[in-house]
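To whoever is covering the structure queue this week,

Two jobs came back overnight. Logging them here so there's a record in the thread.

Job A:
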Amino acid sequence: MPLSALLLALGAAVVHATWNLLLSDSEDTHSASAVALVVGALVFAPVALIGWRFEAAAWPYVVSSSALELLYIVLLATAYSVAAMSFVYPIARGSAPVLVLVAGAVVTGATVSVPAGVGVVLVAIGIVLVRGVRGGGGPRDLALALSVGACIAGYTLIDKHGVTLAGPIVYLEVVLGLTALAYLAGAWRLRGGAALRAAVTWKTVLSGVGFFGAYALALLALRLAPAASVAAVRESSVVIATGVLAIGGREQIGAARLVGAVAVVAGIALISLG
């Protein structure tokens, strides 16, 4: 993995952890998500227009990615409204690279290396520890977190190909712009205008910029390195977010959950090496 791609992926991890920390702390995560998406789309629109390059062949990838992004943000906002971030985030982010690896192996027929296989096992152990050996997270919360991970894996594989047919920021703007419009329409219908106006805070504004910014950094990295490697490095955000939650005292994080988060990242690193 080139150093430039590594730095871009690490930057994406830091920004991603930051916007998730801000969004998960909102009282109404669905309204906050809608506002954040619209803010991000507006901020990045001028940049996209300046360097506009978009081939017609990109549309199937854009539509597919937008649909998965919409499902992703709906599931994520729902998960944050019913479960602790220290539970949802490591499982969602940790399962994504595993699914990318498996999907890549199934589609291309590539064999899974020993380090990658060990990495999958470590991620699985980490997820068990994060959930709690006695199932502290609950089946519903676990299903939500794993569904978020499946969405991440899906749009990562799609974007790896789609981003070659447009400028990275342009591709980002079109994909997330469509997502923002759809989510805003849904939130307006279900939550109402008053809830959306109340959700306009400095946290949601920064979340929106961070949402787009993290994605832009990841797309740039995908142009320079394999999808599995980029996905793996990005997931270092798991330790970053868990550490902030623990140090800041926002959530009570036991030793098992902290060890689980570290195990997830260690497994992801092995998958990346594989």
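Job B:
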Amino acid sequence: MVKQALLDKERESVKNSLSDYLPYLDFIDNIIFYEDESVGLVLEIKPVYDETLSDEELIDLKQKLIHFLNALEDNLALQFYFKKYKDFSDLKEGHLKQNQSDSKLVKELFKKRIDKLDQDIQRNRLFRYSLFLIIRKKYDFKVDKVKSLIYSPNRLNKEVKLHFKEIIQDLKEIQEKYRYYLQKADFEVIQPSEEEVIDFVASQINQEVLKNVKFETKHDLTHCCMKKAYNHLQIGDKYFKFITLKNEPEFVRPTLIKYLTNAELNFEYDVIVNLKILDKHNQTQKLKTQKRVTRALKFDLFGSDIDEEAEAKEADISELLTDMVSGKENLFKFELLILVKADSKRELNKNCDELLSSIRHLEGAQGFEESIANFQLFLSALPGNMKFNNFRDFKFKTSYVTDLLPIFGPPTGIGEPLMIFRNKYNSVTYLNPMSDEFINKNGLTIGASGSGKSFTMNYISLNYLAYEPIILIIDKGGSYKKFVETLGGDYFEVSTKYAINPFDIKTDNKELFWRAIIEVMIREENEPISNDMKIIINEAIAKVKEEEINKPIISDFVDAIDKLEFKDQEMKRKKRKAYRHLKRWTKGRYGSFLNNKESNLDVSSDILAMDLKGLESYPEILEVFMFYISSVSWYKAELDRDRKKLFIFDEVWQLFLTEQGGQLLEEMYRTLRKYGASIFSISQSISDFADNKHTPGIMENISFFYILRQSSGADYDKLKNTLNLSKQDITEIKNLNSVKGVYSDVFIRLPQLSFIGRVVPGAFEYWMATTNSNDISLFNQVLKAFDNDLIKALNFLASRCPYGFTTYSSFNYDEAFKKFDDNIVKVLDYLAKEYLKKG
């Protein structure tokens, strides 16, 4: 009896299996075969990132979409499948794979980044976006039983097999045709693999992320049981229901649909749009009939007054007829289904309320929360299974439809997921600055004082640690001191107490450097170097080389000039002048710092920084020292061509933009990529270098522009013209913001993409990158308390002060230190408890 009961129960479960309702027959490449002899082509489309698009560009996009829809054949149906979900598994795995370093600190950093992502995903602060397009067409497979295509393919006759090949060929032609139209509309179109299509379909059926689903029959697509309640469905632990349109928007405009795809809706859901073009001839005839009826009804019984509403309707019909005849418009069956998801019934109701509220922003539209129709809509919303038999469809013209397509979303990224920025869609945009996608790897960062330039550059630099790079930083004011010393590098606060030899050049461009340095030393203020002076300098360099001086110093060039002989009196006079001007660099403070055979600055460290604040009072010395830095840069670049290098020049643009400095900087930007090197320059204002004649040569060798909040007096016109930005870009830049310890907005421009990124560090990463003086003081105290165990200190600070010193800035530190006898660990433990009490 028990056995029989189990068998009966098994039969009942099979009878009511969800797989019995599925329409899927087979999958080949990106093609889906359905049991009703329809075939669907699946394409993935990258959502359009609209934040940096102008109104004109959005209108142009709309026109291109109109052309695409009007080009559809009458026997095709479309399904746009927009997904907002929380599966970041591939991105997290990809990020961890980028780390090539064996450093415990770097490994911990990458792990903490993943922890931060997980926290924000769990808190519904982070989502992924995908958009699929399915083009479906009905065929006659020429078989009595469609299932024999799968179960008995060897029994099919040659005629059927040939016909089947013709279907495949027709599908490929359809794909190429409409892929071309989409690409003309500036969409990035990807053809998913067969495995990806199967996983997509199975995930939508089971409402959970599935990978590597093995398909033999449609029963393989169901992994969970479905429970049907009166006003919702449940599959596994996921609850969901549909919302449809009760009333359409009174009018539409580009980006209107963003009310349904925006970042304000912090939960998972799908937006499915089913479309089918209606027969133009039939619709034209219906419109003509409707026009005649409307014309007759616009007059009252006595024919004296005209019904204005009816007259307006007649005008609209006439305009639509004209547009349809001319090919500007078509009519479509349109169905909008929104699948709202949640982990509980209560949460589902809350999510539906939020979505219904968003629909009300669609210019008078109203949504309808489905109940008993949920299962029927679930079937209609399955990938490619648009049936239009739910009585939820509307009849819309092309230009109306285009504004209701869920095509907008964040940019996914370029290259591999090394650097992970947030964006305004509460999603991520990743970037690998070392990717082969970029011809050169150089960058420029511009932002007002206090906008977070140094912090952002530290944050960016942390990503380079994955490659165990050589890093050289030229600083002014100590912004990178903690960063460099934390990583075990050398930080030099350069002053005239040091001794260097600016002519000790370790590159093949020695003569270029020598010539530039001497020109700076003998140049009179605001006067260019004359041709005669250039002759004197060149001959002095030639004499030094002739004498085979291995490491020349300033005195060697002074002696070389003194030995030069000229018959021309003018040249003799200029030689004496050059001798006199150069000789002054061999005495006093100038000589003790620059006229040395050996340098006592050890530049061998893989992570090296020089702070030039101590040389600000000596602008002439500082300008010469920049050439020494350039030579160190070339030396570092040539050390190991297979190794990555990063050079950062912070707040020193004005020091380079002399004639000689500009030449050298342009050469570095143009050539360093050959050595696997990236150079970044940081400035408070675009004016620091915008008008220099070397700027065009520098600009064409920059791939990365990081623009932070600008000062109140910023010259936005100059910024726009120098960086070739649009008006919309400038508008977005003006709206950039930051909150210390929480985030910094950055306008990021790449050769292929511009977007608004948000630097959102985790607490561990924040403490590695912070440049705040109070943070650094606190960090040093904690590090000492943990016996210089860097990872322990960082983890402790991350757990107690996740947003830096600001976390507890409102507390009385002196009182806390007094209470715990200056024990910083106990102080922060105490303040953490007080912080939680405050909420």
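Note for Job B: Residues 1-15 have pLDDT under 50 and may be disordered.

Please reply-all if you pick these up so we don't duplicate work.
Q.
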